[in-house]
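Appendix B. Extra example for self-study. Work through it before the problem class; the solution is given directly after the inputs so you can check yourself.
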Amino acid sequence: MKINEIVVISGKGGTGKTTITASLIPYIENPVIADCDVDAPDLHILLNPRNEEEELFSGSVKAKIDENLCTQCNLCYERCRFGAIKTSPPRIDTAKCEGCALCEYLCPSGAIRLDDAKTGTVYKGETEYGPMIHARLVPGEETSGKLVSKVRSEAKKRAKAEGKQNVIIDGSPGIGCNVISSITGASKVLIVTEPTLSGLHDMKRVLETARRFSGKPFLIINKCDLSPDMSEKIEQEAAEQGVPLLMKLPFNEGVVRAISEMRIPSLVEKELFKAAGWDRVISDLTDT
Amino acid sequence: MKIAFCSKGCDLEAQVDERFGRADFFLIYNKETGEYTSVENMAKEAKGGAGALAVQQLVDNEVSVVIAPEAGPQALEALKNFNITVYSQNGAKTVQEALNLWSDEKLDPIEEPGKKGLHKV
Amino acid sequence: MKIAVLSGKGGTGKTTVSNNLAALVPEAVLIDCDVEEPNSHIFMVPLISGELEIQTRYPVIDEEKCIHCQKCAHFCRFNAIIAGPSLTMPLKDLCHDCGGCELLCPVGAISYENKDIGRIYSGTSRFGTRLIYGQLHIAELVGVKIINELNRQVKNMSLVIADSPPGTSCATVAALDDCDFALIVTEPTPFGVSDMKMVVELLRGKNIPFTVVINKAGLGNNEVYQYCNGENILISGEIPFDRSVARAYATGELAVEIDEEHRSLYLDLWRNVFAESEMNLED
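Solution. Structure tokens for the complete assembly:
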């Protein structure tokens, strides 16, 4: 059984990834749910998972200086290309350490070693709609892409174990390692954008990223009535790029209220979603 | 000639692995002697560059052919540079099945990379 | 004085707030550190006077010198070199540019070449103010090097406003380098509060004093106010949600250009933020 991973990304933050992801969940058969926005996870706030098993995740190693062995020759400080060693006495700025181990290699007194660093915590639990995997990155951590991969692989593992075909993933803003890790090889990528110049600019960049790493994405324009002109420009861009526009959802204070009340927007504002063509969105995303 | 298989276990009856870089094991079969060894894949839990580390292990084990589910663009280029030919598993379920298919020349070479970019999964 | 504008949650209004403030404060240099998706240039429309390509290095092996000892491959923590008995192959996309392989090669067979990862643009905005922004190339993983260069360029400038990336990972931390004060832009929704808490943790961990502005006020609930009060976090301003402002924003117009009311709102915010930042400097 091939797993159907649906990943929701945006380029620009705040366009409504989590709103849309949460809204998809009740309409998808037997989903496994994953929140890959490990920097700023929000989906669990709406879905309230229970019975969560916590697992510490280490995605990197960091250098550690034993001050008893250190002779303060400062060779490590001179050679570190990441600015991760402060002096005197030499000490590691773990936020900047990339775990290259050059300092360990160079240290004449063997005062440096590399230890597994905590990148974040992975939570595996149950929601009323299905199992949910999410994670929280240690603020400032560098290897967030690996934590994203971990969340994704745990979700796939769960899906395979329980014979569930659909994995629905809330992605993160941007186009860097977090996003790339969440979309590489995914079956369906959904870009949620907004009708603004920023939204259009960022959409183009994330579209190019999606093309390179996962294939042709789908598009939703959220808050489409905020600027009909910009909405049209985005539609044109999508058409030129051969990206299917699945839905245009108007801005609605009921959606904001639903989120504030920790409720799923597509269930609270059923008519709004239906009128915008929600059925088609579901069928296109689950069509395998 | 040594042929490597991406495997979930240590013998010929093991299931093939659907991953290359993060396969559980590499089962290495010696065509001339008919013997095989299995190598636990160090790249499985690698914190990055799993495909590259997988290729390094194949190089270390003097493998000339690998049967894989797919390979990313960097791994494929590396395999080419080290003269390791890559064949697709073609739906074989076990290592033995894949070996039989390869012996009968029923496997297709992989010339194009699989999904682009870093897999890490 | 460097003031970072950050949020945790994307879309709360970092760029909106930092750009509106920069448009009002002629001596402030605005840097856009959200190098994955920079937007400040959309509002500032800068006349570009300088561009700088940011690069990272990767190893190149001189096969004539190489004795295939494989030391480089064994050393590399990122698996960026594959070494066999007759070939040593570097993988440029995996290299972190630590410089280790060159140092430990016993025969000096390793040197480095450059790879472009992004670009920095600097210029004068349509308001006559200075903007410097960075943009990561597509398919590159991390923009930290670009952000570090942005910081380096403004190191000795008297007043800098830094539009920072969303989230709390390494890019945000890089944007906070040399930062004297931070302005958290949040929205009054459960997501806004939840993500703000992570940023508060980050700032407190780095001993960076901060204040908060609540954007899109009126669109959500009171949780953020309760949180700030409970934590003794000063709220320096509120920007009410306004559909006409949102519409203007959609086409690249700033709130301070729309009417006097919005100009005053941001002027007040700036006065409060600047006063707070000065007070904290003295501490």
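Self-check: Chain A has two domains: 4-58+120-286, 60-117. If your reasoning did not lead you there, revisit section 3.
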